[in-house]
Amino acid sequence: MKDGSRIRTVRFEAPVYIADLHPFNHLLFVASLFEDQPVLVDISSPKSIKRILPSTPLRPVSEDADPAVTAKQAAQDAKQSTCVTIFTAFGNHIVAGTSKGWINIIETQSCSTIHSTRLCNAVVILIRLANNGRDLLINSSDRVIRTILMPDLSQLGIDLEPANIKLQVEHKFQDVVNRLSWNHVTFSSTGEFVSASTFMNSDIYVWERSHGSLVKILEGPREELGVIEWHPSRPMVVACGLESGCIYTWSIVTPQKWSALAPDFGEVEENVEYVEREDEFDIHPAEEIHQRRLDQEDEAPDVLTIDRLKAAADGDDDVDSFHMPVLLDISDSESGEEIVAVGPGTMRKRSPGAGRGEGERDGANGSRGQNRGRRR
Q1: Predicted pLDDT of residue 178
Q2: Is the residue at 321 inside a domain?
Q3: Torsional class of 27: left (φ above 0), alpha (ψ -120 to 50), beta (otherwise)
Q4: For residue 250, is it within any domain?
Q5: Which DSSP helix (H) or strand (E) runs through 30?
Q6: Chain segment 21-36, per-residue pLDDT in tens
Q7: Are residues 134 and 83 in the same domain?
Q8: Are residues 90 and 49 in the same domain?
Q9: Number of other CB atoms surrounding residue 25 within 10 Å
Q10: Which domain covers residue 216, as residue numbers?
């Protein structure tokens, strides 16, 4: 990659569908060929070593199966071809998709199929692996995009047996209205979203995996788009135009929030003329600034003076103003009513019948006591 020089050239007898490098060994790759068996190629030696991979799915063996049906299935499986192959996250296994909708998991070391699952009856066009190494994204010719949950294949022989491998379909994404086909599909960097470019269309569809719903349709160029990829760490999507070869980019434009720089920053809708103070940007010693703060703390705040309205302060005496009457000291009240303390710092007027009620209750209690004395 430094100088762009070519290390090795490997020729095949058929056109290549797709090739994928081993995640840790750049001298090992797998290639899917047109109408031919896939090949695992090792170029570590001067002469390339090619190992043919099987395309026939692994079917469960049943003793009660009809021999005629078994022979017919074997003849049909022999006609299958592998269209796409990729390595798993650790490179110990290869995931292959066939022309009949089968997904084969092949062991890299032995080149043998350990599990097969049929997803659909159409051709598997593309298989993508998420960054977590456990989620598969499969595009097929039946115009349906599927997300597959795959078990941890690194635990084979430890906590997982080949017979217990199960590929579970999580979501199916499709355009039910227009029945669009998909050129290319990809996961987002976090695996939370799925995006796809459309056939004979310039739009990019984006779905979210939590609920499987369509969240956005990206529009932009007028030409059909091919390969689409997400940025590994940023919310950015790039796609390649099929006609012009231009690279188009979609991203989220984040507005600048100046208030996040400092708590005293204020955002304005338009430019405002600012008049700075004479000593606003003067540099003062730290001791002097500290002493000013101490002096300001010693000043007693004025809570008794009522400020005038701005219009009246500017000299406009025609403005009718209303001031809410404020009684700063309750003892200065001109009312003759008695004030009762309800709580600390809380006062209220005594109700009109409060004293009379207490006197009547006292008199009633006294009369009841005298009556009890007479009866005795």
Answers
A1: 87
A2: no
A3: alpha
A4: yes
A5: strand 28-33
A6: 999 999 999 999 998 8
A7: yes
A8: yes
A9: 14
A10: 175-268
On the question of pLDDT at 297 being above 60, the answer is yes
Region for 217 from its dihedrals, namely left if φ exceeds 0, alpha if ψ lies in -120 to 50, beta otherwise = beta
Residue 89 lies in a domain: yes
Lowest mean pLDDT of 162-176, 258-272, 346-360, 361-375, name the range.
361-375
For the cut 70, the answer to whether the pLDDT of residue 352 exceeds it is no
Residues 159 and 229 in one domain: no
Q: How many domains does the chain have?
A: 2
Q: In terms of domains, do 33 and 126 share one?
A: yes
- Residue 244 burial (CB < 10 Å; 0-12/13-18/19+)? exposed
Q: Vertex 144, ends 139 and 147: CA angle to 5°?
A: 60
pTM of the entire predicted model: 0.66
Integer CA distances (angstroms), 195 to 137, 139, 140, in order: 10, 11, 15
Can you say whether the dihedral through the CA atoms of 131, 135, 140, 143 is positive or negative?
negative
Q: In one letter, which amino acid is 107?
A: E
42 φ/ψ angles, rounded to the nearest 5 degrees = -115, 115
25 and 119 inside one domain: yes
376, pLDDT greater than 70: no
Average pLDDT over residues 344-364: 57
Locate tokens 């692996």: which residue?
A: 129
Determine the length of the chain.
376
Here the tokens at position 232 are: 């590994």
Same domain for 153 and 78: yes
Residue 369 lies in a domain: no
| Nearest alpha-carbon partner for 185 in 173, 170, 168, 171 | 173
